[in-house]
Amino acid sequence: MDLGVAATGLLTGLMVGVTGMGGGALTMPLLTLVFGVPPLAAVSSDLVAAAVMKPLGAAVHLRRRTVQPELVGWLCLGSLPSAAAGSLLAGSLGSGAESVLKEIVGGAVLLAAITLFARMLLSRRPSTSDGTRVRPVPTVLLGAVAGLVVGTTSVGSGSIIIVVLLLLNRGLSSARLVGTDLVQAVPLVLVSAIGHLFAGDVHIGLVGSLLAGSIPGVLVGSLISARVPDRPVRVLLGGMLVTTGLMMIGTDVLPGVSAGLLVVLLGAVIPPLRNAMSSRRAPVASDHREVVG
């Protein structure tokens, strides 16, 4: 077992369990750039490992009832046929077309991150909605678009669906957001993994090392995400969206991860500073009114 690859799997599992994201967009570049794994073998092996890892995280969320089953059903109705079509389409597309598509998706993911942080910074009240309102037609249509992109590019099963969920269900709690994303991602990843298994691109030893770290990581991450308050999870989610989006548009691993960490740091520091400034202003205003009276 390669301890470095297992550590990568542990990091991936934690990120997937807590945010629903971080699989292909982080693991594949790390395996390729840090450990020298050929890109095709890295993608294939990561997909097979994810096909084992994600159901475990999804099971934790299902047991804790932090999943919207109706939303999962409508998403899968659109995404699964489109993912299958995208897998067939991928063989006929040139590398240039796939590159352009990934850049477009990366831009959309970055826009979602900006929207998420803007809402957190502008909103002073935590959402009390459980996000139970489901709109079938938009959900199926956006799920179909997401499935087509995932099937064509083999990345984004977490980040793209997170964007869809954020667009459709603004009041969805972080735990339900992550749980719903993990459950719907299971069939998407399975379809892709089966295709790569038949193609013979999977390295079993690499899969074993990834699973040695990712299985405990995703279980711990899923338990944490169900207990942590909304704001910390959304801050981490925003950092992951920034990292994923930058990598999709061609940024290297180190700058992408650094930008994501910077976003997480700003998201963690700015709200407390804003609250502290607001609490300082309130007594001053009160004292002024007393003097005038």
Write the layout of secondary structure elements.
Blueprint: H1 3-19, H2 24-33, H3 39-63, H4 69-92, H5 95-122, H6 136-153, H7 159-168, H8 174-199, H9 204-227, H10 230-248, H11 253-292
Helix pairs in contact: 1-2, 1-8, 1-9, 2-3, 3-8, 3-9, 4-6, 4-8, 5-7, 5-10, 6-7, 7-8, 8-9, 10-11
Q: Could you list some keywords that capture this structure?
A:
disordered C terminus; mainly alpha; 293 residues
Describe the protein.
This protein has 293 residues and is mainly α. The protein has 11 helices and no strands. It has helices at residues 3-19, 24-33, 39-63, 69-92, 95-122, 136-153, 159-168, 174-199, 204-227, 230-248, 253-292. The longest helix is centred in the C-terminal third of the chain and has 40 residues, at 253-292. The protein is globular.
What portion of the residues fall into strands of 2 or more residues? under 5%
Alpha carbon gyration radius: 20 Å
User: Based on DSSP secondary structure assignment, what is the total number of beta strands?
Assistant: 0
Based on CA inertia axes, which overall geometry fits?
A: globular
- The average pLDDT is 75
Tally of helical runs: 11
The SSE order reads HHHHHHHHHHH
Report the structural category: mainly alpha
What is the straight-line distance between the termini? 76 Å
Contiguous uncertain segments of 5+ residues: 124-129, 289-293
Report on the biggest sheet: none
Q: Helix fraction?
A: over 70%
